């Protein structure tokens, strides 16, 4: 498995499991457990997904089944916009930690920038407090564009370790990727499979045939080859396994270029400059 190193010296697995749109029942628990048994060490949760209890049960069962310890895992959650504000951050963090049945998180993210930039900065101060108190191992952001990051970096005492954004071959985020790289902030991709839409693409399928891999494996490998951390979601055991079998091959430059050329700046999620929860 690959790990990606942050500017603060910590690191996280380059491929993890996403759990958005998974109900808070045994489907969530079993998917997380199966992922951990299959070798995954990173789980991407969020308070707003409403499934932290069952995700937490899956983590506990996965630790036992794989005979590993909590410290072997990298667990992310995210503060939702309703909980923003410096003085609310620790309470929101403890809410997620408790729902997940954990003692700490490896990464806590601001889920969206929101449209109130003063509130954004004020909330980041709360995130910094959490980090400085060593309650959380790493802090980061999600859905921040360059404008948001400029504002944040100008004021921040602690730089985010990563920015989790929509990223797939129809939305290659080149400008944002270059900006993040310049500032030594990692990019993490959400909806890397474009919620399965990109798996139908002709070029993706042609490349998959060329290298005898599945379309999903091509996309996940393309993320790794671009130094983008990724968290494909699946509740299907065979797909969970398939999406993790991506460390024993790579794409050649021509294949990477052909995937990059699919960019249409097409989003399936909201525009971060406008979304406010
Ligand atoms: N920060 C944010 O604002 C934000 C927003 C969206 C998502 N996220 C995070 O990113 C994660 C991933 O994004 P996502 O859940 O939107 O979508 P995704 O990972 O792009 O796609 C998931 C879909 O692809 C299917 N799939 C997975 N592996 C497959 C394979 N090997 N072959 C065929 N189909 C496959 C899944 O089906 P089955 O499950 O039925 O197998 C599911 O329908 C989320 O779960 C969440 O953790 C974050």
Automatic annotation (TrEMBL):
InterPro entries, per the entry: AKR, Aldo/ket_reductase_CS, NAD(P)_OxRdtase_dom_sf, NADP_OxRdtase_dom
UniProt-listed PROSITE patterns: ALDOKETO_REDUCTASE_1, ALDOKETO_REDUCTASE_2, ALDOKETO_REDUCTASE_3
Limits of the NADP-dependent oxidoreductase domain: 23-264
Keyword Magnesium: no
Protein origin, superkingdom: Bacteria
Pfam families for this protein: Aldo_ket_red (PF00248)
Keywords from the named record: NADP, Oxidoreductase
Gene3D superfamilies per UniProt: NADP-dependent oxidoreductase domain
Protein family: Belongs to the aldo/keto reductase family.
Protein name per UniProt: Aldo/keto reductase
Organism name: Mammaliicoccus fleurettii
Classification lineage: Bacteria, Bacillati, Bacillota, Bacilli, Bacillales
């Amino acid at each position: 498995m690959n790990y990606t190193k942050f500017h603060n010296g910590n690191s996280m697995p380059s491929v993890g499991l996403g759990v958005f749109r998974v109900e808070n029942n045994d489907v969530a628990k079993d998917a997380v457990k199966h992922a951990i048994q299959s070798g995954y060490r990173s789980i991407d949760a969020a308070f707003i997904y409403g499934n932290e209890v069952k995700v937490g049960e899956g983590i506990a069962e996965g630790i036992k089944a794989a005979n590993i310890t909590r410290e072997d895992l990298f667990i992310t959650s995210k503060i939702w916009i309703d909980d923003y504000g410096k003085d609310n951050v620790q309470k929101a963090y403890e809410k997620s930690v408790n729902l997940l049945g954990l003692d700490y998180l490896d990464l806590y993210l601001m889920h969206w920038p929101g449209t109130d930039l003063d509130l954004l900065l004020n909330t980041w101060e709360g995130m910094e407090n959490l980090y400085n108190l060593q309650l959380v191992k790493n802090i980061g952001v999600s859905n921040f564009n360059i404008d948001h990051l400029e504002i944040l970096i100008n004021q921040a005492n602690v730089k985010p370790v990563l920015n989790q954004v929509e990223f797939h071959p129809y939305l290659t985020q080149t400008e944002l990727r270059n900006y993040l790289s310049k500032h030594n902030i990692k990019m993490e991709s959400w909806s890397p499979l474009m919620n399965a839409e990109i798996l139908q693409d002709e070029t993706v399928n042609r490349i998959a045939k060329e290298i005898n891999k599945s379309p999903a494996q091509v996309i996940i490998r393309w993320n790794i080859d671009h130094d983008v951390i990724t968290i494909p979601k699946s509740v299907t055991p065979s797909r969970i396994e398939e999406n993790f079998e991506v460390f024993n091959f790579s794409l050649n430059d021509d294949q990477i270029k052909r995937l990059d050329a699919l960019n249409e700046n097409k989003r399936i999620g909201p525009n971060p400059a406008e979304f406010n929860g």
